[in-house]
Specification:
Layout lengths: L7 E3 L6 E3 L16 H12 L4 H12 L3 H14 L4 H25 L6 H14 L2
Antiparallel strand pairs: 1-2
Helix pairs in contact: 1-2, 2-3, 3-4, 4-5
């Protein structure tokens, strides 16, 4: 589902809304990390939501994870730091990278077709957006 199709729920203490399918409203009750350092960072973030060192540990873990799992952390991150261009960029770059990789897989399946001009335009677009 697209985010605008999801029902909206009130986020804890922020006065803002977020799609209920993203897990944002209850994200602080769920453990996200799968590593010992990440789990320790999550525990410390329960006491201090603004500890950038602990967020960095989790961001680095998210960068190595699937985009579906990483989205959960990125949503937590931008909920906590909604005006941080740096954190929004990390989120967007992960999404763009996954999209570009998927596009390359699809393109590789049709390389035998005679569509050189179309392929060239798409490849230029992919290269422009790939971090």
């Amino acid at each position: 589902k697209m985010a605008d199709e999801l029902p909206q729920v009130k986020s804890e203490g922020t006065g803002s809304t977020a799609p209920s399918g993203t897990g944002v409203a209850s994200c602080w009750d769920m453990r996200w990390s799968r590593t010992d350092p990440g789990m320790r960072s999550e525990e410390r973030l329960k006491e201090n939501l603004y500890d950038l060192d602990d967020w960095t540990v989790l961001i680095n873990e998210a960068k190595q994870d699937t985009v579906d799992r990483a989205r959960i952390l990125y949503e937590r991150l931008v909920q906590r730091f909604p005006t941080s261009g740096r954190y929004w960029r990390i989120y967007i770059e992960h999404e763009v990278l996954i999209c570009a990789l998927f596009l390359l897989v699809v393109l590789s399946r049709c390389m035998h077709l005679d569509m050189c001009e179309e392929r060239k335009v798409v490849m230029v677009s992919v290269n422009a957006w790939t971090p």
